[in-house]
Design goal:
Length: 472
């Protein structure tokens, strides 16, 4: 095309003029605020007619362009009625957060600028903001000053990163030859209360699911350190190659904390990488009152902490933190000539599994800066108080607690005369009054109640307890 030739105009549906963007932005802001209020008062469970929804969805053949205002209205309605509402304070569910407001602002800002965080050359300020937040978290956990890391899409990516670092450190040949470099089958150790994504991670990393050794837990649901030491020693004698111990600080089911210092010592004795999966429990570091529960976390070679759990940021905000940042560079090194910068100790694409990356860390930066450690201390302490209140109410009604967590999770079983756990949970969910989970903790089926939602009030506790008792 010659320099003088006229180009077609940019597609206005994709790049509308400023006045139109502002109009739609205002509309969207107001629509979302109104929907948020309805969600807070309405049912936790979806109430969408899925037959009608599928029929409407099928009509999107993308042949003729449609009006964006209408599309925004349609989409927000489907979201309002077509998903479990983590934003509803009767969601006593998994660790999915009711997203805090600063992190929602962060998503808007990063959506508008859309910086590419692969390299410091493209995004000098965003890359430094993320590194600053990760260092602050590392310091809070008591890791040495040289510790660093990066934001991940989720806890699973951070745990995967830990395994890759462990394998890379265990054998210099791993980077080139993969597991063939090891003299025997590889093993990693975690407790049987671990988050099950570890199976996928073992598969993904090429060591295979059988390489994941699930160590027995004691009656409290904490990893049995003696059993761990014996398993490692037994495997070593059998020619197996142990590479990683992962202790959990806040198990998914019962919120229990493995003996972190003992696990560290076993890892040191055998020269294994020591990881602490504090995906949700790590937020307790914010509280001077609760952080003692995580004693020993400072001995970790690496940590997983998800901001999109108890830190309540929007989704897609995990963190991997390590005392050996050079291992990240070794694990994720690559040579390029097209990237805007190649600073091996700094550029995220040279130190993490992702290449193109979103400005994920802005969510935690704005949240932490707005609330301070003190605000987060109140946030996590409040959640533990909520759980204590729920526990007292249910025990008084004849329920029994099965876990004894210092964090914000309660596992209970009903008094005699109640249906089974799955049926209780089905009835609570069907009532639309609250959301709880059925799970297995320490080998027994339990109703699991999590109070990490930051806006639970007394009336929500009343409603939860009433809906559980009504499930009889
Ligand atoms: C202890 C623990 N580790 C890891 C994960 C996985 O985190 P994500 O869902 O962010 O991948 C979870 C999820 O609940 C968890 O509780």
């Amino acid at each position: 095309m010659s320099a003088g030739a006229e180009l077609p105009a940019p597609v206005p549906a994709l790049f509308p003029p400023r006045a139109e963007r502002e109009r739609l932005d205002d509309l969207l802001t107001r629509a979302l605020a109104a929907a948020g209020e309805r969600v807070a008062r309405g049912p936790v469970m979806p109430d969408l007619d899925m037959v009608q929804f599928r029929a409407e969805l099928a009509r999107f053949d993308f042949e003729a362009p449609q009006d964006l205002q209408r599309l925004i209205g349609w989409t927000t309605t489907q979201l309002e009625h077509g998903a479990v509402h983590m934003g509803n304070s009767r969601y006593f569910g998994l660790f999915n957060p009711a997203a805090n407001f600063p992190s929602q602002c962060a998503d808007r800002i990063s959506g508008a600028f859309n910086p590419q965080l692969a390299s410091s050359g493209s995004s000098p300020a965003p890359v430094e903001i993320e590194a600053h937040v990760v260092r602050a978290i590392a310091r809070r956990a008591g890791l040495p000053a040289e510790s660093a890391g990066h934001f991940t899409t989720a806890g699973s990516e951070a745990n995967y990163t830990a395994l890759l670092c462990a394998l890379t450190r265990a054998a210099p040949g791993f980077a080139s030859e993969g597991v063939r470099t090891f003299a025997g089958p590889v093993a990693m150790y975690t407790s049987r209360e671990c988050q099950p994504a570890w199976f996928k991670i073992a598969h993904q990393a090429g060591i295979g699911r059988d390489a994941l050794k699930l160590i027995a837990t004691n009656s409290r649901g904490e990893m049995d350190a003696d059993a761990l030491a014996q398993a490692v020693e037994r495997d070593l004698k059998a020619g197996v190659v142990p590479v990683l111990i992962s202790a959990t600080a806040g198990t998914t089911g019962g919120g229990m904390i493995d003996p972190l210092a003992r696990c560290a010592q076993i890892a040191r004795t055998h020269g294994l990488w020591y990881h602490v999966d504090a995906a949700w429990g790590g937020a307790a570091l914010c509280s001077p009152r609760l952080r003692g529960a995580l004693a020993g976390i400072e001995l970790a070679d690496s940590l997983t902490i998800d901001a999109h759990k108890w830190f309540a940021t929007t989704m897609g905000c995990g963190m991997f933190v390590t005392r050996y940042p050079a291992m990240l560079s070794e694990t994720f090194r690559v040579a390029t000539d097209f990237m805007p910068s190649t600073v091996s100790a700094l550029d995220p694409y040279l130190n993490s599994a992702q290449w193109s990356r979103r400005f994920m860390g802005l969510r935690l930066f704005l949240s932490l800066a707005a609330a301070g450690w003190e605000g987060y201390a109140t946030h996590v302490e409040r959640a533990v108080e909520v759980i204590d209140l729920i526990k007292a109410r249910l025990l008084a009604a004849g329920w029994s607690a099965r876990n004894d967590s210092q964090l914000a999770v309660l596992c209970v079983v009903p008094p005699n005369g109640f249906p089974g756990i799955r049926e209780i949970v089905r009835r609570v969910l069907a009532s639309g009054r609250a959301w709880v989970a059925a799970t297995t903790f320490a080998g027994q089926e339990v109703v699991r109640i999590c109070a990490t939602h930051g806006e639970i009030v007394a009336a929500d506790i009343d409603e939860l307890v009433a809906s559980l008792n009504a499930a009889r």
